[in-house]
Every structure is written in structure tokens, then in C-alpha cells.
Specification:
By secondary structure, the protein is mostly beta strands. The chain has one helix at residues 189-192; strands spanning 62-65, 69-80, 83-93, 103-113, 120-128, 133-139, 149-155, 159-167, 201-209. Strand 2 (69-80) and strand 3 (83-93) form a beta hairpin. The protein is globular and about 60 Å long. The termini are far apart.
Length: 215
Amino acid sequence: MLSQKFESFTTEGQTEHGATWSIDNPNGEQPLQLHIRALVTGEPFDSPRRISLTEFEEGEFQKEAAPEVQCELSVGRTVMDGREVRGTFRARNYGSVARGAWARAMKSFESPLDLSSHPVIGLWIHGDGKGELLNVQLSNPQQETFESYEEQYVRIDFRGWRYYELPLIERSTGEFLDYQWPYGAGRWYILTGRSRPRNRMHRFIFYFNEIPPGQ
């Protein structure tokens, strides 16, 4: 029996030769015991079997923001740093603190989507490197059985384009209470305490949070 558990860790970007990592053992000599789980991955971004969650069309999203935050979502195809852009979501914090400085763009589907066979969201993000948090959220209808959220967080601490695969099975619930959301800490149960039927997704939401003051 191990007297102390190791912290979990992941390894990504393996090549055909595999990957190598090292861990310091804080305990005495003991047999090695490992629990290995492969992370979910998706097909290529342009796979013909993909489901498009948005085409960034005019009037497709509704916008909302905290009192001291202003946001805008512009649509239409353009080119930025060599890659086609479909939509640009901007927000500015006119307040004095980053905590609770949020903005969102929300799309409601006319008919709920069945994403039960699509466990990964793939998206390209062009970051500004200012440290804000992007929350990509899917939700079930509240009036049907129960409401539940799928949330995936991306820290925008980079500049330029990056491609992200966000596995729905790996929700960012462990970080939820680190931030202030308009749906409140008291509703943490909608992320952690409920099953998540992915065959009835009815909303797709982009959240910005922790927007730096004056940025």
C-alpha cells in the first residue's frame, strides 16, 4: 500500500517513439503501481463527419456582460495571420478588478443536438496573450429532466493561433469555484452532481472571464 499518492499528470504530443517523463518518489522503496487512461481525442478539424456548432452568422448569438464590461461579436469571413476567421468575440473591462469581469455570446439551437457520438469540441483560437479565461459551454434544456452544463476552460496566455481539442468527458469542474460566474457558486451541482445527457444539447455559449481591467 502506498503511503502517499502521486499527483496526477498527463503526457501529450507523443511521437512514434513514445514519450518519456520522470517522477520523484517521496516514499521508501515500493512496487511500481500505475493507473493509465488514454485521453479522448477527436478526428481532424475538417473531418466530413464533424458537426458544426456555429457558422457565425448574423443574429446567431445573443450577447450579455457584467455591468462594467462591454462586448461585441462581429461575423463575416476575413483573414488574420494567414487563417480564415469566421467570427470575432471582443470584450473590454471598464472596471477596476478582473474577478467577475465576464462576457458571453450564447447560441440557442432550434432543435437540440445529439452529440452523444461526438465527445470532443475542436476549435481554433487566436489569442491576445492578456490572460483572460475562455469558457466553452454546452447545456441541456432546463425544462427537460434537469439542467446540466459541459464546461471547458482555456487560459488565453498566448498570442496568435492555437488549435484546441476539448474532450467533454474531461470537464473543468475543478476550477469552477476559482472564478465568479453569473450563474453563481451555489449552482456548482449542475456541473458536478448530475449526469450529462449529450443527446439533447440546446445551447452553445462562449464566456470570457477574468478580463484584465482596462483591457
